[in-house]
Amino acid sequence: MTEYEAVIGLECHVELSTATKMFCGCRNEFGAPPNTNVCPVCLGHPGSLPVPNREAIRRIITIGLALGSEIAPHSLFHRKNYFYPDMPKNYQISQYDLPICVGGHLDVEVPNGQGSRVGITRVHMEEDTGKTTHGSPSGRIHDADAALVDFNRAGVPLVECVSEPDIRSPEEAGAYLRELRATLESLDVSDVRMEEGSLRCDANVSMRPVGDTELGTKVEIKNMNSMRSLERALAYEISRQTKALETGEPIVQETRHWNEDAGATATMRSKEEAFDYRYFPEPDIPAIEPSAEWIEELRAALPELPRARRERYVAEHGLKDEVVRVLVADRTASGLFEQTASLGADPAAAANWITQDLAGLANKHGAEAAARVTPRHLVDLLALLGDDAISGAGAKQALEDVVETGDDIGAIVERRGLRQVSDSGELGAIVDGVLAEHDDASRKFRDGNESVIGFLVGQVMKASGGSANPKLAQELLRDRLQG
Ligand code: ADP
Ligand code: MG
Ligand code: ZN
Asked: How many angstroms separate the alpha carbon of residue 34 from the centre of ligand 2?
């Protein structure tokens, strides 16, 4: 039987977090009351004229530089014509054959797999549309009796980043999107929140016999709202197309919609219904011609990118690849790590607590609550752990308390009675008392029954009201029994 491989290319849309919109002075903010950030330009009133946002141009050039693109010395805005109720001009200002950023690549690391390089075809500048909400219980159009349009998003600067069809699996697509997200986050150009729509992704996927170099017929999938739905939608589509190929069913070039609840894709529109956008140069905006000096200035100002940061963490702190991957995928986590390490905490321990326990608490209590944890909290927690003044379990409790209350570690440890007795004098007295009471157990131990040590440690814990350091208790017991 023929073996097939998947060929995937992603088109990612990124809303820039500039103060104002792309072609007017309206505020660019998420969550404002509907239709409050609007003006004649973004509402498409006749006679209004667009003026490009310089900061948005700066940001897209920065993105291109981070992705290794060529920055075009001359690029154009075009009008992309189509009708949509939430697009008041009936055309979208976008870029066509002369985008600002051409070519480039993103190196990604697939979990439990090899690194790979995904080519970038182009990165171009456009404007977002408004947002339609369908007044129906399901939110879908078919059973709605009203459509509400909010134009706050109309004209928000939007960067589209198109990849080459270099991706071969859902996991690699997920890794690409995570790396792109981390890169954009490090550049401080966008909120990159998939759940708020400031990072959106369409996936193109086709299958071909392994070894073939020609591309198969592709399907475009839309409406994936998370990293997880991207991977799920691709896995579904790969198996659907593979089955079709194996049974000789033709694959049609079409756009399909991912239905999260059904866990399946469904036809949205076929090639025959594809739009003819009648692109033509936007007559109201001159060519974008950034000076070579400006481009070099922006290149010199690039921050440390995730890949370089991962390499530095490995080199400087000897952290493991998996830990570094999780740490650097999230700027809050890596910021917390850097500050905690710079305050003198053990980097490996800090990284583990941040990527494991704190990440778990963020899932349980929410990111906002997890943000209560400061570098100082971690430094104090790790110091107490290092001195055996609290147990691992106690430290976990204390960290959860920080997430809930934001209180100091010292106060929490006292309030919860988490401090362990690690003083060998104080604990030695308790140990002596336990041994005096349990003659028989001591005898069994001396006769070679090692396992009673567990019982004796339990008795020490009990006698201390749970505050004894069990490791030290065991040491002291052995000392006395063997001595
Ligand atoms: P369109 O004009 O339909 O948007 P493009 O050629 O511009 O198509 O490509 C859009 C995206 O689809 C790119 O990310 C590209 O890498 C990807 N792509 C193109 N052809 C294929 C294919 N046969 N299989 C998978 N992905 C593809
Ligand atoms: Mg497309
Ligand atoms: Zn406006």
From this structure: 29
Q: Cα dist. 244→22, 144, 240, 249 in Å?
A: 44, 34, 6, 5
Domain boundaries, the chain: 4-297, 304-415, 424-482
Which atom number of ligand 1 is nearest to the Cα of residue 220? 12
C-beta of 120 in contact with ligand 1 (< 6 A): no
Listed residue (199, 171, 198, 180) closest to 306, CA to CA? 180
Residues 133, 135: Cα–Cα separation, whole Å: 6
Q: Can you tell me whether residue 133 is helix, strand or coil?
A: strand
The alpha carbon dihedral of 185, 190, 196, 197 has a sign of negative
- Provide the mean pLDDT of the chain: 94
Q: Rounded to whole angstroms, how far apart are CA atoms 13 and 301?
A: 24
For ligand 3, a single-atom ion, the residues with CB < 5 A are 24, 26, 39, 41-42
Q: Cβ contacts of residue 450 below 8 Å, gap of 6+?
A: none
**What letter does residue 13 receive in the DSSP assignment?**
E
pLDDT digits (tens, 9 = 90+) for 188-215: 999 999 999 999 999 999 999 999 999 9
Report the alpha-carbon distance of residue 417 to residue 390 in Å, rounded. Answer: 10
Ligand 1 mean position, distance from CA 186 (Å): 27
Length of the chain: 483
Class of the 424-482 domain?
A: mainly alpha
Torsion of CA 236, 241, 247, 253, to 10 degrees: 140
Confidence tier at 152 by pLDDT (50, 70, 90) = very high
Would you give the DSSP letter of residue 370? H
Chain segment 244-272, per-residue pLDDT in tens = 999 999 999 999 999 999 999 999 888 77
Amino acid at residue number 458: G
